[in-house]
């Protein structure tokens, strides 16, 4: 059975299993990397997403599937798209589980493609960017090419360029990219 063929009950059961798995690990210490604002550089494989709130605020939360713009894909929770379908509904706990699932692929993409050390703020800004645009756009971006050449300022200056959809500037994306750039340069 493909994910597209899953019933709402199967999705809910899957989310419950994810939440149970996560709650059974609550006694573990989670390393979120260096303290926020510390300007020391770290290898990407030593960093963990520290600023989930940037993603949550930028994405907003919707417990019923919707189309963010007419040219977009179905979305639910905190910007989750992979399994979202028309009419789909989830709980707040389901939205959190989907976010954690999505953050895993974001962190994997950063570890895979970023070849230079980052500060915690740079890592968090890039995580927000990748979460919103996807791994393929990030992998093929001038931003990543500049970053991997050590041009941190040039990479930061690429962020605001990603505020369009089908050639049209979207105010929400402009605001988000400016926040990501500011965080990256902090």
Q: How is this structure best described in words?
A:
It is a single chain. The protein is mainly alpha-helical and 186 residues long. Helix content is 51%, strand content 6%. It has 8 helices and 4 strands. It has a two-stranded antiparallel ribbon. The chain has a two-stranded antiparallel sheet with strand order 3-4. A hairpin with an 8-residue loop joins strand 1 and strand 2. Helix 3 (92-113) crosses helix 4, helix 4 (120-133) runs antiparallel to helix 8 (171-185) and helix 6 (142-148) runs antiparallel to helix 7. Residues 22-38 have low confidence and may be disordered.
Descriptive key words:
two-stranded antiparallel sheet, 51% helix, mainly alpha, 186 residues
Topology readout:
Layout: H1 8-23, H2 52-59, E1 62-66, E2 75-77, H3 92-113, H4 120-133, H5 135-139, H6 142-148, H7 152-158, E3 164-165, E4 168-169, H8 171-185
Helix pairs in contact: 1-3, 2-4, 3-4, 4-8, 6-7, 7-8
Portion in beta strands: 5-15%
Q: Helix amount, in percent? A: 40-55%
Largest sheet data: 2 strands, antiparallel
For the biggest β-sheet, the strand order reads: 1-2
Rounded to the nearest angstrom, the radius of gyration is 17 Å
What's the overall geometry? globular
């Amino acid at each position: 059975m493909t994910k597209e063929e899953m019933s709402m009950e199967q999705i809910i059961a899957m989310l419950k299993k994810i939440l149970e798995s996560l709650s059974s690990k609550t006694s573990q210490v989670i390393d979120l990397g260096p303290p926020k604002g510390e300007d020391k550089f770290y290898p990407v494989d030593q960093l963990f997403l520290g600023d989930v709130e940037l993603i949550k605020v930028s994405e907003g939360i919707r417990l019923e599937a919707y189309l963010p713009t007419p040219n977009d894909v179905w979305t639910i929770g905190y910007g989750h798209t992979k399994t979202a379908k028309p009419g789909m509904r989830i709980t707040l706990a389901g939205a959190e589980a989907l976010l954690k699932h999505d953050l895993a692929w974001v962190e994997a993409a950063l570890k895979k493609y970023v070849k230079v050390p980052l500060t915690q703020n740079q890592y968090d800004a890039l995580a927000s960017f990748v979460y919103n645009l996807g791994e393929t756009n990030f992998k093929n971006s001038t931003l990543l090419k500049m970053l991997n050449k050590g041009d941190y300022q040039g990479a930061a200056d690429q962020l605001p360029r990603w505020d369009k959809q089908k050639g049209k500037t979207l105010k929400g994306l402009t605001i988000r990219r400016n926040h990501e750039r500011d965080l990256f340069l902090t």
